Task: structure prediction
Amino acid sequence: EVQLVESGGGLVQPGNSLRLSCGGSGFTFDGYTMGWVRQVPGEGLEWIAAISWSSDASAYADSVKGRFTISRDNAKKMVFLQMNSLKPEDTAVYYCAASLRWFARFRPTDFQYLGQGTQVTVSS
Result:
């Protein structure tokens, strides 16, 4: 059974940082592109970041470029999202995702697996 389990969400003030983690199991972790998508209540999923299986390539949505950094540790089957300079509009449920393919820009539907999500709230 494929499992993606996120952690690290919470309440943070604008301008501060947060680091999300995701552990994968039940699939060949180092054979997949890993990514993050998010969803604001009442809106659709938004892709925000992806990293290739070997970590030699990464891609970001314009909304987070320069503020968020994705990384992975294949030995531990983990993927991370470092979020800096957080804004209230970053408030969303963040989902870890896995894809068999690489694209210059992703859509949420490009991912075969999605985790259960972790809530991030940016508010003073």
